[in-house]
Amino acid sequence: MNASALPAVSQPHRTATNLMHKLSSELRLPNNRLHSFTRLREDLFLDTMDIELLLASLESGLEYYLTEEEANQIETVGDLQHYFLR
C-alpha cells in the first residue's frame, strides 16, 4: 500500500481558541473569566493537584506534552498559551 492510499491522521488543532475552549471546559468557567494574566493559583484557586490534572488533560487533548521543567513554570493562563501554542 503506498503512502497516498493511507488515511490522513487527524491532528488536534493547537490554536488559541481551541486551548481556551478546553481550558474553559476543564475548569467549568466561561471564557470571559480567562485572560492571559489570570493566575491559576491565586485567581482560580487551583492547588498543585488541580494544576497537574489540568495539565494532563490539556496534554492529552492537544497531544502535546510538556517537560517537567515547563510544567513547573506555569503560573498563568498566558503561560499555558506560551507552552501549548508554540
TrEMBL record:
Superkingdom of origin: Bacteria
Protein name: Acyl carrier protein
